[in-house]
Structure formats: structure tokens, C-alpha cells
Design brief:
With 100 residues, this protein is mainly alpha-helical. 45% of the residues lie in helices and 0% in strands. It has one domain (25-98): Cytochrome c-like domain (Cytochrome Bc1 Complex, Chain D, domain 2), CATH 1.10.760.10. The two termini are 22 Å apart. The structure holds heme C.
Amino acid sequence: MKQRPRFQASGVHHAGAKAGKAIFMNGVTSEQIPACMECHGANGQGASTFPDIAGQRYRYIVQQLTYFHNGTRKNELMNQIAKNITVPQMKEVAAYLSSL
Ligand code: HEC
């Protein structure tokens, strides 16, 4: 997959980035949410077929996670990963990623 150019960080800070970082790094074992970094890389920079999600816009990330969660956007891996994610967790992980 072709890598897109780096995103321009918006500079806007959203609440929950610290909790979002924990989800990104460790996942949420009790809800069977894997660590995002396993595929998207330690800094969210992506690798091979896994997209670069560092610095994407907060609202875009929340929207895409919602779509993966409810199946509007189809991807075998992400549909499974987003299955149990809650709206607060989506916002936290989006706060973290949009801050990168
Ligand atoms: C098992 C590998 C894997 C893991 C773990 C994973 N992802 Fe993904 N992710 C993918 C793949 C593959 C895609 C590309 C999906 C597609 O092409 O539609 C993707 C796409 C995305 C996108 C959409 C990017 C875009 O440009 O539209 C977001 C946002 C995202 N992932 C967030 C997360 C978050 C947050 C986590 C952790 C809760 C996570 N991912 C964990 C594999 C993974």
C-alpha cells in the first residue's frame, strides 16, 4: 500500500489523550481490544498494509472507529478490533493519535 504524506497535526488538544495512549500501547484486555501499536506501529506511523494513523484528525478517527464498530466501513481486522470499543474509548484513543 502506498504511504500517504504525513498528516499535519491540528495543534488542537482533546481530553483523554493519556488514557488513549494506554489503549494504543496496551489495548484493553478485559474487552478483547488488542494494542493498536501491534499493527499501526509504536508511534502510529503504520507499516506495510497498516495505515499511518498518527496525527489524523480527532473527528476523523472517532468517525472511522464508529464505522468499523457498526460495520459501515468493512475491514476484517478493524471490524473485530472495534467491536467492543466504547465511545469514550474511541474519543480517548483519537485524542492521543491526533496529538502525535
Ligand atoms: C491486527 C492489526 C490491527 C490492529 C491491532 C489495529 N488496527 Fe487499525 N487498521 C488495521 C488495518 C489493516 C486498517 C486498514 C483498514 C482498511 O483498509 O479499511 C486499519 C485502519 C485503521 C483506521 C483508519 C485509518 C484511515 O486512514 O482511514 C483507524 C483510525 C484505525 N485503524 C485505528 C485503530 C485503533 C485505534 C486501534 C487500536 C484500538 C487499531 N486500529 C488496531 C489493522 C489494525
